[in-house]
UniProtKB/TrEMBL annotation:
Residues 2-93 form the Formamidopyrimidine-DNA glycosylase catalytic domain. It holds the Pfam family zf-FPG_IleRS. SUPFAM superfamilies: Glucocorticoid receptor-like (DNA-binding domain) (SSF57716), N-terminal domain of MutM-like DNA repair proteins (SSF81624), S13-like H2TH domain (SSF46946). Residues 239-273 form the FPG-type domain. Its cofactor is Zn(2+). The keyword Metal-binding applies. The keyword Manganese does not apply. It comes from Streptomyces fildesensis. It catalyses: Hydrolysis of DNA containing ring-opened 7-methylguanine residues, releasing 2,6-diamino-4-hydroxy-5-(N-methyl)formamidopyrimidine. Belongs to the FPG family. InterPro entries: FPG_cat, FPG_N, H2TH_FPG, Ribosomal_uS13-like_H2TH, Znf_DNA_glyclase/AP_lyase, Znf_FPG/IleRS. This is Fpg/Nei family DNA glycosylase.
Length: 288
């Protein structure tokens, strides 16, 4: 799933390639992905893209007084093309969900695609990004100046959730998902199951520092890469997430996994839990 670093890189790439260019045609191809109908996608045609920004994991392309907002969900992506096919795309069962063709240079534009059978990609055309429910309920952005150590500590105070779940909650902190929460907690040497309210001042400071360094490092690694290379760069840069059974790059212990209904977390016992494996709750239920 694209998270803050990948969406930030997409934002910067699109800002360089679309700002100042006008929209020739918009082809919505996946009805399930289009979450708004007024204004229609065609209302973007003839308008000039003025900016590309990010709200958590949401892309926001502003054209005139309209905003094309995209949430890539688990398997969505943006693909740039200097020369899109001349023929309009046809709706079908393929991954193409939306095509935006620009007027200058003729034929350039981008596709929004979604792989797999579970379709959660979301596309909105709105006059105000706050009209998108997912944006309206976002918490603070960890790259913003307002995300200070004091602000972060305030988010954790009296919160009885496990720190892993809190980091992933978009209404608490915008942009961090399953992968980077694993990476942040590994860097901070913190158990994903520790309760936020029970963290010491030192532990809170370690997690705050790990958020900044982990996200900044991921963005730096992606700087200047073509869109097609961002996914592979993310995977290659992860130290524990998705690396069950591999040695920890810090201590050499075997990376372990805890599975849930639709996701899994990975961690290093030596670095994060005092050498003790965490209980895999899904397996525990199966063994009862």
């Amino acid at each position: 799933m694209p998270e803050l670093p990948e969406v930030e890189s997409l934002t910067r790439f699109l800002a360089e390639h679309v700002v100042g260019r006008s929209v020739a045609r918009v082809h919505p191809l996946a009805v399930h992905a289009l979450k708004t109908y007024d204004p229609p996608p065609g209302a973007l045609e003839g308008l000039v893209f003025e900016s590309v920004t990010r709200h958590g994991k949401f892309l926001d392309l502003q054209a005139g007084d309209l905003h094309l907002v995209i949430h890539l969900a688990r398997a969505g992506w943006v693909r740039w093309n200097d020369a899109l096919p001349a023929e309009p795309p046809r709706p079908g069962k393929g991954p193409l969900a939306l095509r935006v063709r620009l007027t200058e240079p003729d034929g350039a534009g981008f596709d929004v695609t979604e792989a797999g059978t579970k379709k959660h990609l979301a596309v909105y055309v709105v006059r105000d990004p706050q009209d998108v429910p997912g944006i309206a309920r976002l918490g603070p952005d960890p790259l913003s100046a307002a995300f200070t150590p004091e602000a972060f500590a305030g988010l954790l105070k009296d919160d009885r959730r496990q720190i892993k779940g809190l980091l992933r909650d978009q209404s608490t902190i915008a942009g961090i998902g399953n992968a980077y929460s694993d990476e942040i907690l590994h860097t901070a040497k913190m158990s994903p199951f520790k309760l936020a309210a029970n963290l010491s001042d030192d532990e809170v400071a370690r997690i705050y520092a790990a958020i900044g360094s982990t996200l900044a490092d991921a963005i730096e690694r992606s700087s200047g890469l073509a869109l097609r290379d961002l996914k592979s760069e993310k995977k290659s840069g992860l130290r524990v997430h998705g690396r069950k059974g591999e040695p920890c790059p810090v201590c050499g212990d075997t990376i372990r996994e805890v599975s849930f209904s639709d996701s899994a977390l990975q961690y290093c016992p030596t670095c994060q839990t005092g050498g003790k494996p965490l209980a895999d709750r899904r397996m525990s239920r199966l063994l009862k």
